[in-house]
Amino acid sequence: MDKGIIGNDCSAVGAKQFSATGHWSAPDDGARLHYEDTLRSGCHINDERLAHLLTHRIGRIVMDLERMGMPFDREESGKRLLIVGPAPGHSKPRSLRFSDITGKLIVETLHAECRRRGVKLLSEHTAVELIKGPEGVAGALAAELASGELMCVRSKAVVIGTGGIGGLYELTSNPVQTTGDGISLALRAGAEVMDLEFVQFYPVTVLFPPAIRGMNLNGHHFGAHLLNAQGERFMSAYHPDQMEHITRDKLSQSIFREIQSGRTGIHGGVFMDATMIPGELYAKEVPGEWNLAQSTGIDLTRDRLEVAPSAHYYMGGIRIDDRCRTTLRGLFAAGECCAGVQGANRLADNGLGEALVFGQIAGQSAAAHATESSLPPYEAAALKQKIHRMAEIFTPDGIPPQTLADRIRRIMTRNVGIIREKASLQSAVEALQGLRQHRIRARFGNRWHPDLLWGTSVRNMELLGQGIALAARERKESRGAHFRSDFPHRDDAGWKANLVVRLDDAGEFIIRVDAVHTGGNTHWPAST
Description:
By secondary structure, the protein is α+β, with helices and mostly antiparallel strands. 34% of the residues lie in helices and 16% in strands. The chain has a domain at 203-312: Succinate dehydrogenase/fumarate reductase flavoprotein, catalytic domain (Flavocytochrome C3, Chain A, domain 1).
């Protein structure tokens, strides 16, 4: 089930490459070294079980994809997969790709495999609530966006794989409909979530022109300069030794500080100047990026583009174990909507691998659970109450949901963005609490219902945005993608831990500090 068109609206489509070790790897590289790099990038608050699964299973996934027909770039002899890199944070080159459209081809390969196996796929449907019973999750309540009708989908197991939260911010490299829906669904149903404060920003994303707004640029990796409105190469004031080649988090913070200083273009960003890069080199290194810009009349080596950091990847999300089980029986989750794998900061080129490895585990675990279980009962009265509450938030004279979404994005960008401090986080919490009181306009047409789509998404954005702000306020240190200007240093003695979040019976947030898990399963009873 997908609220867009299946295969076209996920972040994975834009992924250029991913890291994996296997028989193609250099003799001095392997899964163990990849695992250590992942923990180091995650500032050692990763769930070590999950990080181990990612790095030790991704090689097998590569071979599975090849058997399904997925092509990868190979060395000139054609006998070995071509290794590129090293990507930032990796101690060895270990990334695989096909040109720079790797994610798109993987999605198409898996989509074709689903069709071959007769899997029923539903586009333009959105899940609005999980259905629960005395034995756990019993299905989902969904809306068909073409008709506006609600449908009750009963099932023995439910898998959430809804991606990240980029749509909560004004500028994102994600599809705009990536609004944290699955995380909010799980949270409202009573599942635990974790590490909500960790939002990774990509430093150089197109702000203007609008034709390619949201496109990540890679020119700074091979020579492009970042300039402010005065034409100054401002990274010399922040990181003069490494300039634009500093890590993503520090580059994003530097750009953000320059934007805060007011030395920006008319659209509020800084500029990427790639005039010193030959067009042939740019086209060779990132052909998809080059060709998309060319198709809109933009020459990346001639035209300076206004850029800013964008919400890119989410390290927080639903709490899972090594079988992708959540803390609710019958509910499984995988990919970017989950926490634990990446810790405080995702290692470059680990995102696509996370979706592939844990998507497989979640599918296998959910299938095994369904095979061993009968269709669970559900609480009909509770379901009717959910439907009634959902209807209550819509009214013909309410606030347009797109207006509410824009307000949430402004709050999150200004107060819960790259650089945070107590007062702005408290302001965000209060503002988001206030928005949750507003009713949403409902104007339903005959063929398409955008108010239904955005109305349900806005409720998820309000809830999750508040959770992110609360967790960011609670973590009184700077670690990975979470930077507090009032607590600018990492504090392993006090904060080498995870923040676990849930809702109480009144819908209020409960936050507890948990030790980082390095051993076996101690939180999911054997009956689940």
